[in-house]
Amino acid sequence: MTAFDWINYTLLAVISLVCVFPFLYVFSVSFTDPEVYVPLRFYLFPEKWSLAAYSYILSTDSFANALKSTVFITAVGTVLNLIVTFSLAYALTKKDVPGRGPMMGFVIFTLVFSAGIVPNYLLVQNLGLLNSYWALIWPVLTNAWSLIIIKSFLESLPSELEDAARIDGCSDIGVFLRVVLPLSMPAVAAFTLFFAVSHWNTYFNALIYLSDAKKWTLQVLVKTLVIDSDNAGMAGAGGDERSVPQETIRMASIMLAMAPILLVYPFLQKHFAKGIMLGSVKG
């Protein structure tokens, strides 16, 4: 290997360690027994393993409500995102669709310009969606970037397959459901991951649109635990809060918020690797 390769690999190794160490610290502290936990001490591995912090968090009503809210928003939002994005992108691939040009212009316009926080808030307020889960779903049913990428991918599919399906008697909806979607599974898997991660990590919109603490998402609850000075957000605990250090509770809440995505990603990695090349130029 050349000197450049050694320097490159060394820098990448250092950057990787810098990224991994905070995760290891969070993981170690969350599993450290409260009896041996020492504040402001770096833990690479727990000295004594314990599930006390996780037991405490899972016994609270606040975590159960936040988990329910996040799962609902992620599941419903992801399904609606896929339906709206793929159906609209498929329609935009058809040159004979009335208003296709202006519609595509609107899509590109939103890619370049954003209304901003205040207009978005006023829109949600006028729609009567404040303090509702739908405030985190309806305004983000799709986005320009996803539409353009999926449209480019659908245009690369052989048009002869659609023609053959129409000859066999399929309607436009039948062609979309029976021909286009089965051929688009890598795209569906990739954007399922994109949309699900986006909804799961919803924080700012949940913070400004949801005023009821019982409807908080996991990210808002984690923010309350990590940033606030107390565990006021963890209501309805089944055990004694004082027996579990606040730092271990905070780290355990971070791990619980990350765990679902970390567990789902390996199952979608095969399709995700294919999906990231959607819309790329083929030689």
TrEMBL record:
PROSITE patterns (UniProt xref): ABC_TM1 (PS50928)
Matching InterPro entries: MetI-like, MetI-like_sf
Signal peptide annotation: none
Subcellular location: Cell membrane
Topological type in the membrane: Multi-pass membrane protein
Major subcellular site: membrane
GO cellular component entries: plasma membrane
Keyword Transmembrane helix annotated: yes
Transmembrane segments: 6-28, 71-92, 104-124, 136-154, 175-197, 249-268
Recorded superkingdom: Bacteria
GO biological process: transmembrane transport
Statement: the UniProt record of this protein carries the keyword Transferase: no
Keywords of this entry: Cell membrane, Membrane, Transmembrane, Transmembrane helix, Transport
Matches recorded under Gene3D superfamilies: MetI-like (1.10.3720.10)
Domain ABC transmembrane type-1: 67-267
Family (UniProt): Belongs to the binding-protein-dependent transport system permease family.
Name of this protein: Carbohydrate ABC transporter permease
Species for this entry: Cohnella rhizosphaerae
